[in-house]
Amino acid sequence: MAAPARKRVKHDSEVPLEASGGRQPMQLEFYQGTWSEILQLAKQLFHVWLVIKCPWPELNTHLIHAKNCLVAAIQKYRKKGSKIEEGVSQLYSNFLSQSLS
User: Fold this and answer.
1) Does residue 72 contact residue 22 with C-beta atoms inside 8 Å?
2) Which tens digits make up the pLDDT trace of 36-77?
């Protein structure tokens, strides 16, 4: 007789896919409009930094460089004169006010 199949443990932090329309905040597809473009540019800038400066980053040490890439992407969009939507959440508003002032 075969053992019953194991069930996966549900984690509290998981958002049901049905509730989010199949999109997760940790994926670029979650964001729309200008934010999607900004995050894609920031990701590209960070990948270039990784290749040139640090092929094995450590989270606590090098996370500031990811933030710098995001700030650089936002500033590039502002210089182009592109309008940036107020944001996906209050978190981005707080980030912008701290990083770009």
Assistant:
1) no
2) 888 899 999 999 998 898 888 888 888 889 889 988 998 898
Q: From CA 78, how far away is CA 91, in angstroms rounded?
A: 19
In this structure, is residue 99 part of a structural domain?
no
Q: Where are the beta strands (DSSP E) in the chain?
A: none
Count the residues in the chain: 101
pLDDT at 34: 82
| Number of separate domains in the chain | 1
This prediction has a pTM of 0.62
Where in the sequence is the domain holding 40, given as residue range(s)?
35-81
95 within a domain of the structure (yes/no): no
SS3 56: coil
